[in-house]
Predict the structure.
Amino acid sequence: MGAEDSRYFVELRKASLEYQADGQPLLAIDDVSMSIRQGEFIAIVGPSGCGKSSLLKLVAGLHPAARGEVIVDGKAVAGPISICGMAFQNSTLLPWRTALENVLLPLEIVQPFARDFSRKRLEYAERARALLTEVGLVGFENKYPWELSGGMQQRASLCRSLIHDPRVLLLDEPFGALDAFTREDLWEVLQKLWMEKRPTVILVTHDLREAAYLADTIYVSSARPGRIVSCTRVEFARPRTLETTYLPQFMDIVHALRERIARH
């Protein structure tokens, strides 16, 4: 592995985050250190309310660290960063825009794409259609969110998060509201997109199988205030298949993660 490949792209250095609750500071995450290589796919698991989503806000620059540092691409994060894409448990598609128009949205508002949007609209639309085709939504480009199933909406949401080629992809339980079959189908879709584009991915999930299927490295957070209590490398070759999830070695990882969460 070359020096450029081995450098850390996202770093949290003893980072803490606080919110105000009833006029009092509430410590959400405390003294978190984490080093993520460029192009690595990591997952964060832990009990509800442990600050997993708060960690994504720190990396995205949506909330400042109370203490410590957050470094992305060698620069201290001091506000919202433009090189990240985000997807959430709810697709958050705008109901008055078609699937294609929703996917195009980041190109309308994120520089340097926004200043060229009018001139390159046809080119950008082709890029969006190619992504929608890749996730199995060919023929649905002109459908509105309410005409799409939950799984289709999440596919469109993934396309929207990737359309501007973000170097960091932040995923906050993107499949948590879906049924098991749709969720597993989208694991394969996300793995394929990541292997093609290789953004640095941070996935927050409650699903331990999902974490072990998708991630290179899995971090376990304690209950609030969230602290990283373990780090597990996942060594299965890619592309992984659903058959991988039935291997004894795979289940060993899932059981070990469950035990660590239960202890903390």
Remarks:
- DSSP finds eight helices and ten strands in the chain.
